[in-house]
Each structure stands twice: as C-alpha cells, then as structure tokens.
Amino acid sequence: MNKKNTAIGESLSLVGGIRSAMELTPSKVAITDSGSTRTYSELIARIDQVSMGFLAHLDLTGQAHAAIVSGNSIEYVEVIAGASQAGVPLATINPQLSAAEITAICDDALAQVLFTDLHNSERLLTCTFSSVKKIIVFGPDFESWINSIHSTGSFPNVSADDVFTIPYTSGTTGRPKGVLVSHRSRIMTFHGMAAEYGCYTAADRFLAIAPLCHGAGLAFALASLFFGGYVQLINRFDAETVLSILHENNITGVFMVPTHFHKIFDLEPETLARYQGTQLGSIISNAAPLPHATKEQILEYFGPDLLHETYGSTEASIVSNLRPKDQRIKQNCVGLPFNSNLISLRNEQGEECGVDEPGELFSSSPYLFNGYWNNPDETKAAFNAGWVTVGDIARRDADGYLYIIDRKKDMVLSGGINIYPREIENVLEQHPDIVEAAVIGVPDEKWGERLKAFVVPSHGELIVPEQLASFVETLLAKYKVPREYQAIRALPRNAGGKLLKGALREMA
Questions:
Q1: DSSP 8-state class, residue 62
Q2: Using one digit for the tens of pLDDT, what is the confidence trace for 15-37?
Q3: For the chain, what is the domain count?
C-alpha cells in the first residue's frame, strides 16, 4: 500500500484532495471522456501507479522534468496528478504547435519523458529531442506501462512551493517562456474558485471544454476533482454537442472562451431552441474580452444570473472577476479583485494611479507563479517586491472595478500619443454589423504608427470603411479612429482563445 503524501498537507496537494473525495465516495464517478469512465477509487489507484512509475520505472535524473502533448483525456489527468505526487514538474505543451516548436519546448524544459496521445504520436516519434529519453503513447503503450508497475513504497516529500506544472506562454510577444506554477498556487486558486463561482462542491457537475494544456483549462477541470465533484471532458468543441450535453447531463458549471460562444450563437434558431434550458449555476468566461453583443446573447439564452467574466494570467492566476449581478451595469469591465488578491495600478514613475487613470496592473496573492524556467531576466522583470505584472494596462473606477485597457506591448504610439487598441475594439464591437474587432499599429512614415482595424462582419455583411470610421468618431477622439479597415472571417486565436496580434501584424 502506497503511503499518502503528507508533506504539503491534504489541503495543498492535488492528489490529497482527490484521495479525500475517494475515501468519502469511492464508487462515485469522478470523470468521463469520450470513451472512458473512472470512479474515484479507480482514479486514485491509477494515479498512484503513475506516481510509482515515475519513481521506479523512469530513469529521471537531476532536475527531472517531464512533458505532455495531448488532447483532453482521462489519461492526461492521471499523468498530471501522478507526476505531481511524485514531485516531477510536467511541461504542458499545446498539441496545436508544430513538431519543431514542441521539440524546442521539450528541450528548453529539459523534459526526460514525453507523454502523448495517438493522434500526435506519429509526428513526435520522429522528432530528434536533446533531452527526451522515452516517449509513452496513450493507448496500449500507456496501459502496458501502467500494468507493469508493481512497486510500492512512500511518495517523496513535496513542498507547497515546489513546481507543479510548467505551462508555456503562447509566444505572441516572442519566444515562449516556461511558467513555473507551484502546488500552492494551484490549490489556493481552487479554493478561491470554489468561494467565487459556486460550482465546485461534491454535488456539482462540470463540463471541461478548454484544452488542458492551458493553465485555465486545467485549473477549471481539476478543481472539480479536488472538491469531489464530477468532470466531463470534451476533446474537440462542437457547438451543438456542447449544448446537448448542457441540456441533458445536469451540468452545473462550464468554462468557455468567447470563440465558443460565437460558435454557439451561429447555430440555427431552431437548434438553439431545442437545447434551451439547463441546470447551470455558473458560466465562466476568460482568455479574451466578451463583446457586449455576445454577452447579451449569453444572458438572454442561458439566464441573467450565471455569467462570470474573469481576468487573469498564467503567471498571476485569477486576478479579478465580474460577477453576474454586474454584467449589465459595468460594461467592458473585468470586475473586482479576486479573493485574497491585492491590486496596484502604477504609472511609469511607479506611483499609484488615481481613479480612472491608466496604469500597469500589478497583483499580489497566494496564487502567484514562482518565476520563468531558466529565465532570470524575465523573472526579474515580472516581479517587483512581491508583486507580479504581465504588462497589462488597466484603470479603476470610483467603485473599485477594474477595466483592462490593453497590453503594454500592444500600445500604439502615433504622433507621440499613446493609444490603447482595446478601447477602440470595444467601440467597434458595438457596431451592429461587427461581431469582433482587433486593432493594431502599422508603420507610418509621418506618424510613426497608424491604426488599422481587422473586423469580423456579422452574417457576411460588407463593410464600408467610411461608415465604421464615422461610427468610431462619434464615440472616441479623432486620433483614435483607425484609418484602415480589413474584413476577416475570424480573428486568429490560439487554442486557449487568446488573440494573436502577431499574426495580424504579419498579415498587415
């Protein structure tokens, strides 16, 4: 019988939380995916096997790291949990990346073992890694490895501040960086989510849609297991399938990004009507701002008392949340600071900003990351005396509510004036013929940079640049009006829903 890991306490251990739930309800179904089901007792047994596999069967040396490249599956959760109990940090890599990008991240993370699914295995088995010694493929290969593990013994002492996972940033502003997320950060985030969202009890049923390779997608799924609830995993998003699950499976909580909502509301009216009516208690949105028109659709279709719009980052975890009661009161707003979170908005001199004055957003909480893997310069830039910043610019109104104006690196400098594209995008998305918009700066000989808007027209409408410019000018200063407009079928986003402005700059 393997001994439980008590070094970081049941309250600060992912497996400790799952084990606690197992002891209360061993036969309860914990998790399902498209082809498998695990009860809590089955899940813990396999997690323990994975942990012992890391300790006894994998030749991990030095700063032992592992990596995973896979779609959403129960095996993904088993490997994450098993590695954490064994004290092995796991790099969670986006499977949508190219083989070359995956190879570079594995090498950067010094991953010695790589877990992958059958879909990605063919291309990865031919890669030349500098550190990976073994690749284990989900399916017969993984099951054979699991079944070969007969070792028993104690699990190592793992500190709350040790690294849990190493998600890599999307690389939209440069070379991807490994974000060192601690056990403390994740488990404290779970507790914050349970207090805030109201859909993380043992009685709740959560639909996990977002990729587990992303920090938010993983956290929103694992929190349900930590508190003894039920999780249904989806690997590929299909709008009608999701609606049918929400309608028929008594799901009480779901996390979706704006792109998911857009696809849902593109369905035919009769399809939407067929699946209207759910047991949902909470809908959580993150990764990108919700256009106001989309938000109104959500409130009208699902109900006015469910939607949470959350702002955060991989580095700082959840920073703030706009609660259901404020959705129509505070527009283009990311709400109030998340519990146990302190917020500071600072100008370029490092001084605290006043009401409605834009400043760089810093946060301090138990959720903060440890730093960037093997990157002391970037770590030093992110931390300031216990506060963390990822370069977002925000303002705070007289009621204390936060509004993200833009990323510091996305700011456009035109004619010596700082312009924040997010403000312009919010205005463009109020136009009845526009679903989404993104604004960037393009080189200009006279002004240094000029504004260009990419817009997604609704229902294939033709855009008239002069009309859009006139619309923006009625709400914003003239220097904030884009001079160019380009229609686009969809804005480029990564698998987590984040807008890829680098791709738009390449297009421009």
A1: S
A2: 999 999 999 999 999 999 999 99
A3: 2
